[in-house]
Amino acid sequence: MRSQSLLFFSFVCAVSAATACAGRNADGDDDGSGAPAESNVNEERDLFGTTTAVQAVKISAPLTTLFTRYKNGQADPPKPPKPDAAPVGFQQPEFSEAGQLTISVDGADKTIPMHVYIRGESSKSDCPFPKLKIDFDDKDSLKGTPFKGHGKFRLNTHCGPGDASARSGMGRVMNGVGPVREELTYRIIRAMGIPTYKTRVLAVSYTDTAANNTVTDTFGMAIESGDDASERFSKAQPPIIPDGWEYLDPFAVQGQATPENLAQITVAEAFSGNKDWGGTHNIDSFGPTPPGPQVYQIAQDFDLGAIVLGDIAHYWKGASPVTDGQASLKVGGVAKLIAGNAENMKKAYAEAEKAGVAAKAIASADGVTTTDPGFLEGKKRMEQLLALPEIVNAFNAPAEPPADAGAD
After folding, report:
1. Which domain holds residue 101?
2. Helix residue ranges, H only, 100-162
3. Per-residue pLDDT tens for 12-62?
């Protein structure tokens, strides 16, 4: 069976070849391999180094076997403890199969061995085609590819078959347009100055080797791993987290985030229209080990938010209005931060729209402007956020005088 996006994939392969191709838990953020000797991170050739091109990949694995094993509770054998490591506590069951990822590099296909894992929370039961994690077997084989420096990454999938109107039991979008809309959500949140994961839309061709090599061509969203994010956050200028802080297992988070950190999260969730969060549910944490009194947290996982669901919002909790974040705009410098990034937000939307239309990942009547309900929802919410009085007042506030103003 081939999905309706086969034409889309062929088009994107041509685009990406010309432009871009030059465990702790099931989400997998600690494989013990350490960072590779070389890194593309923060380079244009890096998987997350550009925001405009859509990268095309092919994933080949016994997916039917993997999904059946998960349904039957046939988990991988527990991983043995690492030498000289502390005793391992509870290990969340993992489900993986060996496979291959193929990508075009400088006009030639390169095939990389990897393991594909099932990941996520409710989506594992809600989606016929659940979210995945790609963990490369040989980190040295990533040299010369956009994955160099990323020994693993998370992949938000299309959830299952159907057109853009199809929904899962919980209301998730059952189509490749879902990850494209979610990438827009992440992109605008980053643009407003609120840290979260780096993301990128991928045109993905899945070959199910356990089902007569059935091919599904669709779109997905690559998300950087927690380990990669912690390294990026610590090297930011100024640093977002202290050097030495790590991505934390959601089951073992201790400590508290600052009021301003929590306010930023609330604004991000309200903007996305997401009500599927709270505590450490869909909130990732970074902190010291052993645990200390403070952590840094980020909003993530917006696939049940209003932007992703577009005009068909069947999630039982409903959608959060932008005004749910209004009180948080009064905390610290949150309103000023967003007001100062208003143009960056508009630019981020325009870049995502241009890339999505060019790749035929989102609908467009004129080949320039999208008619996709999710993108239109994102644009509307961006305008609503920027029109809130707290943002307008921060935007119109006079510039603060220099620290030495009035000195002789």
Report:
1. 6-22+42-78+94-396
2. 123-126
3. 443 343 333 333 444 544 444 343 345 566 566 789 987 767 889 999 999
